[in-house]
Amino acid sequence: MKTLISIGFFLCFMGAFSYNNPERDTLNIAEYLKHADGDKIYPSAKQMEMLKKVMPNDAYKAAPQITDRAYWDAMAATSSGKVYLNKAMSLLDEKPEVPISDEIYRRANKEGNRGIYKPRYYRTMDRLEHFILAECLENKGRFLPQINTYVQAIMDMKSWLHPNHDDNNNGVLEGKRVTIDLGARKFGGVLAIAESLLGNSLSQAMRTEIKKQLQWRITDSYLKSCKLNDKNNTWIKSTSNWNSVCTSGSVLVTIINSKSAEERLAAVGSSINSMKYYISGFGDDGYCSEGLGYWGYGFNHYLYLAQMLSDYTEGKINLFSFDNPEKLKRIGNFPEHFEIQNGTCAPFADGVSHTESSGSNFAEMLSSKHYGAIKPSEIRMEEAVEQIIAWNNPELFSVNNESETQKSELNGHTYFDDFGMVISRGKQKVPFSIAIKAGHNAENHNHSDVGTYILILDEDFMSGDIGAPSYTAGSFSKDNKARSSWGHPVPRINNTLQSNGREFEGKITETIFENNSDKVVMDMKAAYELPMLKSLTRTMVNDKSGTGTISVQDYFAASEPVTFGTAIMTYTKYEIIDNHTVILTSKSQKVKAEVAGIGGQIKIKDEQVPVKSLREGGTAYRIGIDFEKPIKEGSIVIKYTPVLGNI
């Protein structure tokens, strides 16, 4: 064991020396991107020549084969290895839950019903991953029968797609086309790891069939789309999490499984061209319009692609810096800056409302290493690739046992000045805070929500953005009232909602940040297709003195009289006292909303949000505040004040 540790230390030392050696060839990603073949993702001839200088000739090995007992016995002796093995043993009697029937597949496709298949998919893949690594750790053959059963079950699936990602005619299920989605890339990755690590522990017939299926289901489909920009894998140019997730899986499969050095070069080269689009989806300020949950999912897979390519090329391909290290650093630190208070965050778009999660924190771990982000106090892995990377790079995955001392107090405000989003944090004993954004209506997972906001009193969501509808049929429709501006605390003018597209945006025109008060002014006129509208501004003031007061004022001017109204959105219990007062009562807190109209008389009318299933749970309400008659100019002011004391 001492010899093994000494060798490991020597290799780490040599790796560190090599990494800092300026004489070695490294890929200049900025220069590489300049040589792309127009808008093609597939690398150009010049890019291929650049890749040949930094890429090895051999296929990628995520870890040594099971026969390398020095490596696997060392992993088995670690605390994480013991935990992993115990988890696998607890799953040993479970049967695979795929293939699903064609009937369930078609029903899920038609209804958008994820609950009838998705848990089955991911439980199956999670168990198989545990069986594979556990067999490598233990080497007793105990897990091989289940591995064979699970692998065969996956290969018997007609489609590896999430059914709701197939076309309306179920073309992939029917064998008319091949495409890759979030599920297919994972099925492919699990089988690639199985064949690579277990080697001759599997029959030759099974190994041959695995490699055959990986080639046509993943590699051929991926590289064809990269060459032709076809309609099968349009995510290769996406700015959303789909790009990083599906790209990382496709590359993993190809560089492990493909016998062709040219295909391996092309897959890696395509991924670099593709990641240009993914990174462009973040603001220059690091803002992730998809929200914190999708930051974790998407950036997690970007970073494991980065680590995989770094390991594969001995650091010669560095996606951790890409062509813009400062932007990557801001992206890596997004979670801390996005927190409002007490673990809460804005559920804008399809985002989550709390920072804590039971899912993987792989992205946080690597961000702490590469971008100086706060180091987590625990390690949570979801995929076998993540666990293997952690075993191969233990220096990257040490936890912070004193996380509270590392975490600094949140600033009084955060301003994402590129996307136009402000968090104004109260500093009272019971803090009263607001997150408010301008943005535009072509953001990823967009909700047509220019001007939306969320109010937090202590840990309770009192008013504002109600978050996402659950993913069922119709949930992504622009007419879904939880996704359109109808279901957001923003104006409705002449019964017209905000329009969808990049040009329909808000602009923050003024900010004042002081110890006891923050002010934000945004121009929202461009979010509406109304030619008679001359001006529309929203002004937020957070008066942090005393118990706090947050006011939101909408001013408009038009060339002719228009109907005008806005809304208080809430999940809380509420009482409409009169046309000027609403009391909002959550589980632990109470807020008074005082409403005033300038330029005309106002009225209040409440109604339930008619969406059956909302991510945040419970029932949401729209408390509409409207001028009684059309007017050419006016303002509506909503002033929120905490009501402290027993509820």
Automatic annotation (TrEMBL):
<dbReference type="InterPro" id="IPR018247">
    <property type="entry name" value="EF_Hand_1_Ca_BS"/>
</dbReference>
<dbReference type="InterPro" id="IPR008929">
    <property type="entry name" value="Chondroitin_lyas"/>
</dbReference>
<protein>
    <recommendedName>
        <fullName>Heparinase II/III-like protein</fullName>
    </recommendedName>
</protein>
